[in-house]
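SAMPLE LOG
Freezer: B-3
Tube label: C17
Construct: single chain, 457 aa
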Amino acid sequence: MSKYRCVFMSCVAASFLGSSVGVWAQGAEEEAWGDGALARSMFGDDFEQSSDVRIKSVAQIGWSHNDASDAGWSPNDGHTNYPVVGANDEGFQLNGIQLTAEKSLKSNILPRITPLPGPKPEEFSWGFTAELIYGRNGLMAGMYGFDQQWAINRPGNEDSVKAATSHQNYLAAPQAYLQFYMPVLDGLAVTVGRFGSGVGYEIPPATRPSPNFFYTHTYALVSQPDQVAGVLVSTNVFRNNYGLLAAELGVVNGRQNWQDNNAQKSALGALRWRSPDMRTWVDYSFMSGDEQNDLDHDIQMPVSRILSDTGLRRDHHSLLVRHHFDERWMLAVEGLSGKQRGNADHSIDLITGQPFSGAHYRGANATLRYKSSKLVEYGVRVERFEDPDGFALLPTTTVAGSYNAVTVGANLNLHPHLVVRPEIRYDWQSDNDGVRAYGAGRAEHQTTFSIDALIYF
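STRUCTURE (predicted):
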């Protein structure tokens, strides 16, 4: 217990440190964020203004420990926090070093994010985003038919067990896309390339903590689509006294898929409403399309675990409501559901080796945040995720049942170049028929102590 007391006191001390950094960080809240400082030092302070291109960098390093691995396996085995994600490993880890180059659109709509108030720009605009990440986060960011096959990612892209025990780092290009704004309707934008789906609340990985306030992530994030490759059209429907409404619709190859593993495309879409004062956000987002591996294509595990000679559609729906009560308090609540269709006569689950007749899942999570100052913010998150078929949380677990979690943490904005995020998280299973998911199958609950640092340069 002394180890846990030590970690707990470290988190508390870090929180008090954030509350007392006023003298050292005086005026820091008035400065620009530190990402982009390295590029400005290399290319000059006027580079961004003259080119409209911003180059920014962030490094994420962390430390974590749980009370379940001691009973089951060694923390050196890797991925010992699973099925908790974000801080996948115990001990020290390099989550990622990320480089981003971007040219922002001049528009009244931010694709996959929000419609914007104000006058409609009447000129055509274009932009781009290109990202590169190296570290443990690169494993989840890899895309089939693209960076997942890069030689630098071996043996992890071929031997996941060996990669976990060696704590292998991965190189990936999470996003690489072009965007075009056209002054038609009330503002329209087109995104083409490889980009984050925009489905659900959390986004992996992000260069800024929000909406990823905590170091660890929700089970919802594991189930939702991540990066996709294709085309997305975003347009404003109305912007008036009733609020702002944007609609999005796209066609993509599938989940984490550059080279489609079947003959069908997937549909991606969203409706995003904002109150006139922009304090209340309501987002409905979805993705729907065949996700099985065809018999004549490469197997794409673990994203597509079903092998079939017929099309099997997977649907994922998310409804998010977010409200800022004032400058200090914010609440975000998400409900989600998903379904993978099956056909027991024509499909096989590659994990179980048994005929696959279908699976479904659903969940809900809520995050309450309180900003005590411009330097310190606290948060609490609760979640319940029901996966009765043990389908939705692959690759973190295949244990069927319900997963419950409570997370308490803080964001300490100690400097424009540094954010520290301590947290304590408690997870437990229910409806699992005695099958255990934590501590290598030896525990039904887990307490995780984690802290990370985001360094912007």
